[in-house]
Design brief:
With about 400 residues, this protein is mainly β. Helix content is about 5%, strand content about 35%. It is elongated and about 80 Å long.
């Protein structure tokens, strides 16, 4: 599974509503489900240079579309790379999943719907480069101030409506039939339907469009490419060292993290570094532990306690960020998740560091107020209607 695009911390220590937030997870990180839903949250495991576990809100889980097709029972058409929220199995159809989709035109939401889609057409991975995109169609303009009703078939029931906009917008016409136009609107997921509204054909415009690609995954797959493009640090600035973006402008001393080090929260191990990593030291305790914000790459960043012996000096030290500087790559706030529990006792002195941290007292340290769990209020769902076979290509 994947998470929906959201820059807020999304990893919780427990499923309870008041559980502390402990980390950020990038939207393209694959999550392995580790149990059943508890109080609206799902236990997950995250593999990578920093392995971690915790809980995420069920409503944030998504899958990617692997091949184009219509969502049965809705006026929505999907292209490769579009994301859907899986609601469960479709009753009476073992090869299909019940999904929720949000049709979009850039940042504009066109509607939210529930229907079913073939399970073989959904996965956490990115779609193949050879996956067919929706038919490019012909570009038509919708005049400003014009509403566009969409019908299931010529003369059939109304299934959706494009609200009037103060500026010109663009749709694609897939076919025509006796004065009716088969329209696809959006940037993916798309709305589809038939209309008789007078639209203006865009003369001399190639198939390529701001919103509708002619090949490869639909535009909703773009964030994955953007993440890959920006994950490698620029040689011209501080992150040329490979410091994860979440840590670059955070306050606190910057330290390297030894491979195989553990991050704990309370008495629970929440992360293990498989390779060397990085950490910002927020506070150091006399017991030999430090409160840190740690990461190995741009995929995951968590807050917890680490042994100070696992925090190594940075070679050719980078300037410390005394005051956070908000940049495109940094979180909007210094840190929202609650602080971990402070260790109550001194660790036993030893020549070789133990393989796991000593037990931590449950006595809580002052905590920042946890951010609220994401809310979700579904919009009205249009009732299922008969599906035309001529409006758009069927799912392969």
């Amino acid at each position: 599974m994947l998470l929906s695009a959201d820059d807020r911390p999304s990893l919780f220590i427990r499923p309870e509503p008041d559980a502390a937030l402990i980390g950020y997870v990038a939207e393209d990180v694959a999550l392995e489900l580790a149990g059943s839903i508890e109080q609206g949250r799902v236990p997950v495991r995250i593999e990578g240079a920093l392995r971690a576990r915790g809980y995420v809100a069920q409503e944030l889980l998504r899958l990617r579309v692997q091949r184009r097709g219509r969502v049965r029972g809705t006026p929505v058409y999907l292209g490769p790379g579009d994301r859907v929220r899986v609601l469960g199995n479709e009753p009476g159809a073992p090869d299909r999943l019940r999904v929720e989709v949000i049709a979009r035109m850039g940042p504009r939401v066109l509607g939210r719907y529930e229907g079913s889609f073939p399970s073989v057409g959904l996965a956490a991975r990115a779609p193949e480069a050879s996956a067919e995109a929706p038919d490019p169609g012909i570009a038509y303009q919708v005049p400003a101030g014009l509403e566009v009703p969409l019908f299931e078939l010529p003369g059939g029931p109304l299934v959706a409506q494009l609200s009037a906009q103060p500026v010109l917008s663009e749709v694609r016409v897939i076919s025509e039939q006796e004065g009716w136009l088969a329209v696809r609107a959006g940037s993916g997921p798309f709305l589809i339907g038939w209309t008789q509204v007078a639209l203006h054909k865009v003369e001399g415009v190639a198939a390529a469009s701001l919103f509708l690609p002619t090949a490869g995954p639909s535009t909703s797959a773009a964030p994955a490419a953007a993440t890959e493009a920006t994950s490698s640090p620029s040689p011209a600035d501080a992150n040329s060292r490979g410091v994860p973006a979440r840590l670059i402008n955070e306050p606190g001393q910057l330290r390297r993290v030894a491979a195989h080090s553990k991050v704990v929260f309370g008495e629970q191990v929440i992360g293990v570094f498989k390779t060397e990593g990085w950490a910002r030291v927020i506070h150091t305790y006399d017991s030999g532990f430090a409160d840190v914000f740690a990461a190995a790459d741009n995929r995951l960043a968590i807050r917890g306690l680490m042994r100070t012996s696992d925090l190594l000096p940075v070679q050719a030290a980078m300037p410390e960020a005394a005051t956070p500087m908000l940049t495109e790559g940094a979180p909007a706030q210094v840190w929202q998740p609650a602080a971990p529990t402070a260790p109550a006792s001194e660790p036993v002195a030893q020549d070789v560091p133990p393989t796991a941290p000593p037990p931590v007292s449950p006595t809580p340290a002052p905590e920042l107020a946890p951010a609220p769990a994401p809310s979700f209020v579904p919009a009205p769902v249009i009732a299922p209607v008969p599906l035309p076979e001529t409006l758009a290509p069927t799912t392969r």
